[in-house]
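cache lookup: miss for this entity combination. No prior model stored, computing from scratch. Input as submitted by user K.M.:
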Amino acid sequence: MENLSVRWGSRCILNQVNLQIAAGERLVVVGPSGAGKSTILRLLAGLQLPSSGSLSLHGIPQTYLRLDQRQPQDVRLVFQNPALLGSLTVRENVGFLLYRHGRLAEREIRERVGAALHAVGLQGIEEQMPAELSGGMQKRVSFARALIDDPAKPNEQMPLLLFDEPTAGLDPIACTRIEDLIVRTTEVARATSVVVSHVHSTIERSAERVVLLYDGQFRWSGTVEEYRSCSDPYVVQFRSGSLRGPMQPAEL
Ligand SMILES: Nc1ncnc2c1ncn2[C@@H]1O[C@H](COP(=O)(O)OP(=O)(O)OP(=O)(O)O)[C@@H](O)[C@H]1O
């Protein structure tokens, strides 16, 4: 992102921000509610264009929305809610893109789906419907879907995985499992990942680098080790949840 701004009417959500994400990096974006974290994900996913400035993926400027691009970049979203299609089986959900492209034999699709489910610790649930699974299992199925490679891809490209609040509302043990999966999924898919999260354990366990967004700017950036111990006032306030500090709470 270079000098990138996003405005809604007279409100400036992102104000000439610059951000570079290294290939293979795991980045976590933090910041108070309304700071623009989901906006960052929507920009990276090609669901929203900046008001000004530029966004490039793999060095290619993104000037169209994803649906208007001839060959959209390999960006895979893992939503806050797993967003599985309720009328399709787990196998059809995980293999959705492969079925849609229709280029692979059924047997190969089944093998790929089985391998993706195995990678997230699920087995033998291919024929179940999403509604039959717990919320945590549904999340893991959505991770398996992000692992599916599209062999019809024109050129081999490092995928970008986007995780929007992946551990919101989960118990601490389920959080740990999902945090491990973020790391594992990024490795298995040989991907770069960007995670938006408020959850401290998720920030600490799934990030290599953290950026803090507030009032239209990235206020701090550093490694996760630095995030744990630094005395930057924004980070200290975010870590402690204190009402005192440079950040004011959003209107409630
Ligand atoms: N379609 C829209 N029209 C007008 N304002 C919008 C629109 N979408 C987002 N905004 C505003 O942009 C700001 C940033 O929204 P965004 O969802 O990116 O914040 P966030 O940091 O992800 O917040 P949260 O942590 O609460 O999810 C918010 O103040 C929101 O009201």
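stored under new cache key. The chain has a mean pLDDT of 90.
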